[in-house]
Amino acid sequence: MSIDRTADVKEGQEASNRSAGWGWEILERFGVVFIFIAILIYFGIQSSTFSSSQNFQNIASAQSVTAVLALALLFPLITGNFDLSTGSIAIASSILVAKIQHDHAWALLPACLLAIGIALLIGLANGLVVTKLGVNSFIATLASSTIIGGFIQLYSNNETISGGFSTKLGEFGINTWIGIPLLALVAIVFSVIIAYVQTQTPYGRRLTAVGSNEAAAELVGIRVNRLVLSTFLISALLAALAGIMLLAQTNSANPATNGISVLVPALAAVYLGAAVFFPGVFNVPGMIVGLLLVACLVSGLTLTGTEPWILPVCQGGALIIAVGASAQFRKQRLRAKVT
Amino acid sequence: MTDPQNKPAKASTPTVEAPRSPQANGGSVAIDVRGVSKAFGGTRALDDVSFSIQHGRIHALLGGNGSGKSTLIKVMAGVYTADEGELEVNGNTLDAASTTPDWARDVGLHFVHQSVGVFPDLSVAENFALGSSYEALRPLPQIPWRSLNRRAEEILARFDVEVSPRTRMGDLRPAMQTMVAICRALQDRDDEQASRDVLVLDEPTVALPADEVELLLEALRQHAARGQTVILVTHRLDEVLAVASDATFLRDGRHLETREVTGMRREELVERIAGIEHPAPEHQQVPKNTGERLRIEHLAAGPLKDVSLTANGGDIIGISGLLGSGRSSLLRSLFGVHAPRAGTVTLDGEKIALKSPADGMAKGIVYLPENREAEAAFADQPVRLNFSISHVSRYWKFWRLSRGGERRTTKEAVKDFSVATASTESLFSSLSGGNQQKVVLARWMHLKPRLLLLDEPTQGVDVGARAAIHGLIRKAAAEGAVVLVVSSDARELVELCNRIIALNSGVVTGELTGEGIETRRTLELAYGADPSNEVKEPDPEREIQG
């Protein structure tokens, strides 16, 4: 995020928020950050394990996968479309990469390329169903997610693959660079790329326009269908990469993992992100704060001896709060002060 | 519509709280606005506004964009609360700082907005039921269809609206929908109450095609004849002259004058709204002849059957026609929104076949759609994005979007087009209608188009902004562009165009040029029939809008 951009948004805030005080504005833009810091301090006092560097490394490498999944959701969401198939695509690609090496002795790289290629085909299908058939993206990708789940069962025979594939991935999953897990570095690189495309390119600007008013976007020369299709391709690509990262992190591919349950924390992160820094706007830095907030909350609760059922409750709750908050911010933005 | 034998019976049961008969209401005060002020941040939207409205009159609330009339309506409706002042409605006084929607309904204020808020897929009776406190509408065990329909029938009969309660709302013509919405607003009041109530109509005709407007105005006259008080907010001055008995003028948030309208001339209204002497329309400009640029041959698309025309650079050509005449299809197919069935379009000697708006823009064609909110506005985005979206790639420099450059260009455009906005970062939705329209025009003019397609360029825009927009259109033409303007306001076409082409049922039925351009003949052409039947008021001063 360049300084230029921040100045931009600040000026806009001032213009559109004349009646609200600066205190409120700070709370609005950084409220989630304050909550995050409060969680860090609270669990830091409660549990010495929580504030250990080992725990933060664990959180970072586990959240890297979720972060890339969240990035996958971002572009479709900006244009007003859901891609619920990303979770299933990730799991499918982790199984495919593991099993094709295990069964047919493929090398790692071609296995990954095949997984990415299949993911792109799924993304293309999603995009065509949404743009050409006009099916609501929520329904279309829920359906494709279910279909993928079926094929995962067929291909894997419901067996977990925890060996017989390249060990390079597993090594990559545990190695660090100056204390930062390599997986986290990968997630950071993708975050920077996505944030750059969103805020610094005409492509990103067009996504925003389509999300704001599709009909008007078409009439200012944006090829809306093509653009929306491209977001599904990007989303599928990132989902496949997230799947490979998942394989690296857990060193096994488990077909019992549910695509939707993988998706929920990512979705919560994207929406929480829309309640930070630039309220009402999906943004990458906010998304990362949202992601870490939920992760630290869950880790803190687990380490202080809370029962495991609390985890999905927290994630689901975070999703509702996040969506609610970003809807509120959007409403506030739109509350026109016209005569 | 009016059938003398079908007049509703006077309410025979006297109501408890009505001391006065409807007749006695004439001349009494329906609404008294006292010292109402409202500020948004540093802007005073309403500044100590005081006036009163008499019972049984059609009272026009007039003012330019930003004059405060919408704010005042919203304070009355309880959408906003004022900072200071008092409101008295039918003898009920309330601090204007504590108005609520419930209060407004209880004292008898009923609002019908621009987009009338009907459910097009439901029947008329269902639409009534959804807006009612009618006790029969319980969620369980089942909807009492029969009594619902009977009740709707009674209400419609009471207001002389000849519609079956079972008709699907979306199948009604637009003016009828508005009339049904008005009935819906008044449905829970008996005749006694209704006659004391105030009906507030916020630009009720803005979405109506010209031939529907007269229908609605006639219905308003009937409501007034029944003793109903009507507050009419509109930009169409001919409507004011046609139906209003009084008018209140607001300017820059202040009350200017409340007076009788009868006997006023259009120019006098304009003068009060705009605050300047209205300049004589500079119509029939002789265009700088730059030779033929546009040639359309036998174009067919949508309702458009066969249209041929040629235009020189500098031509501003008005397209006159009723809804369904193909006027919007003509513009949309020229822009590439939908491909024509047949025919050729030649621009500067090059045959063009467009598949999408993007293709149209690549050829130097731009299109201003009729419905700004739905098809041109990025409401939740800043003015900057709304302006720059037509040419955003131009700011792509050194692998990033040059926001500095973008902001500078936007600032210049805001200045050139005199857009009233706090900053280039203000949200588009915070601008008034006229200023929004200027931003959308600026978006297109910046591309230096060869062909401008403008659909209702000044709809819902006040007199001052309208003159400014006309100036901008003339400027583009003077620079050599071809301009096609669709407008249902015949006067606008006369002021703006050097040629007017009439479309009727998809074919060109006539053309006016030079000295032949006048409002009345434009209307006659558009209606395409014997003018004495179609144009209701032949007096040129009181001509209805086409």
Structure overview:
The complex is a heterodimer of chains A (339) and B (546). Chain A is mainly α and 339 residues long. Chain A has helices spanning 3-16, 22-46, 53-78, 86-104, 108-131, 137-156, 167-174, 182-200, 202-212, 214-219, 224-250, 259-273, 284-303, 310-334, and strands at residues 176-177, 180-181. Chain A has one domain (32-331): Orthogonal Bundle (ABC transporter involved in vitamin B12 uptake, BtuC), CATH 1.10.3470. Chain A is 76% helix and 1% strand. In chain A, a hairpin with a 2-residue loop joins strand 1 and strand 2 (180-181). In chain A, helix 12 (259-273) packs parallel to helix 14. Chain A is globular and about 60 Å long. Chain B is an alpha/beta fold and 546 residues long. Chain B contains 20 helices and 22 strands. Chain B is globular, with a radius of gyration of 25 Å. The chains are: A mainly alpha (339), B alpha/beta (546). At the A-B interface, helix 1, helix 9, helix 10 and helix 14 of A face strand 2, helix 2, helix 12, strand 18 and helix 15 of B.
